[in-house]
Structure formats: structure tokens, C-alpha cells
Amino acid sequence: MWSSRSRRLTRMPAEDPRPNQIMEIGLGFQASKTLLTATKLGVFEALSAESKTRATLEDELGLHPRSSADFLDALVALDFLEREDGEYRNTPEADVFLVPGGPSYLGGFLEMANDRLYHFWGDLEEGLRTGSSQNELEDHDTHPFEGVIYQNDAILEQFVGAMTGLSLGVANALAEEFPWARFETVVDLGTSEGIVPKRIAEENDHIHAIGADLPRVEPYFQDFASQSPAADRIEFRHADFFADEPLPAADVYILGHILHDWGLDDKREILAKVSEAVNPGGTVIVYGTMIDEQRRDAELPLLMSLNMLLETPEGFDYTAGECIEWLHDAGFEGGESRPLPGPETMVQARK
């Protein structure tokens, strides 16, 4: 049978084909929009402290009685809510990942997906036919970082918060599992609010951690980092990897969710500039939603690469093998990949 709860669907024997997967995937936008809407309306926040009846949720969230039961029960069927004796409560996963203010909150990324990305996917056919981005910009050659995200305060605030939630699991893994004892300095390039340097500094009291990004991001970084007990070892640096100025030197460079935003020539240019900045004997870490080498199984990375088509002029995702090849061309040696929390993969090479 098709598994109803796994994106890795289990096929029926060939002699007994069923339409389950076709229906589940073909109408998958309905489940997606239900979750995104629940996040936007504050369903999970409303249920963070106690269970509540449908009538109470209607009143608190402004839901019309006509379809509130279908909406809430759909969230039960999708395993985001539980219902008992007429009262709804969050599942454990919803409590951890979908309640604002929690340390593992992913809702910021889902809100960005609802407000921006969901609409772009309605134009996937046009993007596939033209090869052009389908974002909110009329000029398909302008990158959304230049034309939208870094120009609009509300969108930028939502974006940096979304990147924090998206990178939290990786930040914890890097902070706790990477052999930091051999190094003294780290730069997180394209740092957003700075969850990666923050967690590394907090777990390794000898590390000086630098978050590097465009000047518009600095207020968000400073506000976020100032709350850390390691704030005296966390620093923000202005950095533009396409400008003539060199990047700050460090023993370790981290590039998370960066390379897939850009075309091949820009990917190579970024890595060449990073290579110049990494101290001899240092390391570069690249992480993101990398495609499996056979391009058959990594569903989310392949879909993310389509998202790059829709959102950026030339961006695309890639395999770990391709990343290692580009790193070698940039002057790095070795190269190994390993899975990280969620759909992420990390590639590491040395200078």
C-alpha cells in the first residue's frame, strides 16, 4: 500500500496498481495550504498552553462555524493536532516546531512559504517553459535579494527569522559535533540572524565566531546575538561575496543555504573568494538540501531546486559530488559529505 504519512511512498506490487500516490501528490497542495494557513492563523500558538474546544478556537482565531470543524479535523488527520472529548491540542511535533517563541520554531519559514513561495509555484509551468524566475519582480534578471528581500523591512525580518528556524538543527549539530578544538575562528557567510555562529560560540568557549552578511542584516544579527551568553565572542562583519573587498580571514568558513541561490559561474566565484579567506590548514563547510548522486531519491532537494527556478534568475541545487568538484577547483582538498538533521547534507573540505 501507499504509506499515508511518509513522503517516501511504498508502492503496491506492479500487478495491483492503485491511484493512491497520484491522488495524494496531485492534491498535495491542499494539505500544504492547510498547514500554512494554520500557522498563519495562529492555531498552534493558541493551543500551546492548553487544549480548547472548537467554539473557543472559532472565537479566538476568527473562524467561521461553517468549516471550522473540517479545518481543525483536517489538521487532526494530518497529524498536527489531536482531538479528545471535543477538545483540540497540539501533537508533540507541533508543540516543538510550530509554536512561536520556541527554540525549534519552524513556523517563520512556513509563513514565508505561505506569503511568497506558495504563489510562485502557481507559475511553475511558465518557469519550465521559459527558464525565467516567477517571483514578484517584473525583471527576471534581478535577484530577489536585490529587488525585494533586502529592500523591504517586513520581508527581510520574515526572511532572517525563517533562516533561523531552518538552520537551527544544523547549527546545533555543527556546534556539538564538529572538531572545534583544532580551530579558533569561524565565519558563517550569509549569516542572517546568526543562529550558526551563536550556537558554535555557546558550545565552544574558545571560538571567536563571525557572522558575515550585507549591512541591512546587522540590526537583526545584533539583536539576536546580544541575547547569547557568548555575545562577547560573536561578531558581525559586513561582507558582499561579489564585491572587490576580500572576505574576513578565518580558520573555518560555513556556507549554509547559499550556493543554491546562484548560477554556476557565481557559485564558483563565491567558493574562490572563500578559498582566499580560509587560513592555511583551515576548513570549509557547505550545507544545504543537496540532491542524491543518482538524482532519484532526494525528493525535497529536487523540489527545492525547482523552487530556485521560480525564485531566482539562475539558482539551482546540486549533488555533494558536484560541490566537492567545485571546491577542488577553488583550491580545497579532500572532500566528504554527511547527512545533517532534516533534509540537509554537509560537505567538508580542507585548505
From TrEMBL:
InterPro entries assigned to the protein according to its UniProt record, in alphabetical order: COMT-like, COMT_C, COMT_dimerisation, SAM-dependent_MTases_sf, WH-like_DNA-bd_sf, WH_DNA-bd_sf
CDD domains hit by this protein: AdoMet_MTases
Any one GO BP annotation for this protein: methylation
GO molecular function annotations of the record: O-methyltransferase activity; protein dimerization activity
Residue span, O-methyltransferase dimerisation domain: 24-99
Domain O-methyltransferase C-terminal as annotated: residue spans: 121-333
Superkingdom field: Archaea
UniProt keyword annotations, A-Z: Methyltransferase, S-adenosyl-L-methionine, Transferase
PROSITE patterns reported for this sequence: SAM_OMT_II
Methyltransferase listed as a keyword: yes
Pfam families, sorted: Dimerisation, Methyltransf_2
Keyword Transferase tagged: yes
Name the UniProt record assigns to this protein: Dimerisation domain-containing protein
Species of origin: Natronorubrum thiooxidans
Organismal lineage: Archaea, Methanobacteriati, Methanobacteriota, Stenosarchaea group, Halobacteria
